[in-house]
Amino acid sequence: METFEVKRGMAKSVSEDGGLEALAGKYFDNVETSSDNGFEGRFGILLKVAGHYNAKGQLVTDVEQMKGGDLEEFLSADGGREKAMDSRRRWSEFLDSATGYSPKQRGDKAKESAKKASKAKSAVSQARHFMKLSDVSDEKSALAEELITEIQACLDRGDFTRAASRGEKLGKLF
């Protein structure tokens, strides 16, 4: 599974135009609605392409691609390489349409999100280390543990922006 940031208003726009299923139908074959207002389809080397918008407005996708002998057989068939390249092109164009971001922008958003998660984890690590080495009041220690618990919950649910802001607050505590 992979999660992509979506431009503000894009999920609403796609929903108004028939939803993800209609959008996916332009790029993939055998597209059907899934239980989470998403879709499932396939095309060429993409055995399964599934996606939906989550509660935070992000695009959550799951893709299964041919591997090993099946892929080699597909590529060696007449027109196989072209269809494989077309599969990748369609996947990329679908992501462009569903997220509102170009491939470079999607990569930048992913890096930004990973950086926020890393900062939050670092803040927790530094706070624990500081509390171990210093004589910290029980009140301050309890507040720090409360923030650490909140940061961990944010990280677990993928809310890296909130986790980073809580990490900054934790850093300022010490």
Could you describe the largest sheet, including whether it forms a barrel? Answer: 5 strands, antiparallel
CATH topology descriptor of the largest domain = TATA-Binding Protein
Give the SSE order as H and E letters: EHHEEEEHHHHH
Nearest-integer average pLDDT: 93
* Tally of DSSP β-strands: 5
Per CATH, the class of the largest domain reads: Alpha Beta
Structural class: alpha+beta
Helical fraction equals 55-70%
* Low-confidence segments: none
By DSSP (H or I, 4+ residues per run), the number of helices equals 7
Please compute the radius of gyration using only Cα atoms: 22 Å
Distance between the termini: 37 Å
Walk me through what this model shows.
- By secondary structure, the protein is an alpha+beta fold.
- It folds into two domains: about 1-100, TATA-Binding Protein; about 110-174.
- It is built from seven helices and five strands; from the N terminus they run E-H-H-E-E-E-E-H-H-H-H-H.
- It has helices at about 10-15, 20-25, 70-75, 80-100, 105-135, 140-155, 160-174, and strands at about 1-5, 30-35, 40-45, 45-55, 60-65.
- A five-stranded antiparallel beta sheet has the order 1-5-4-3-2, covered by helices on one side.
- Strand 4 (about 45-55) and strand 5 (about 60-65) form a beta hairpin.
- Helix 6 (about 140-155) runs antiparallel to helix 7 (about 160-174).
- The radius of gyration is 22 Å and the shape is elongated.
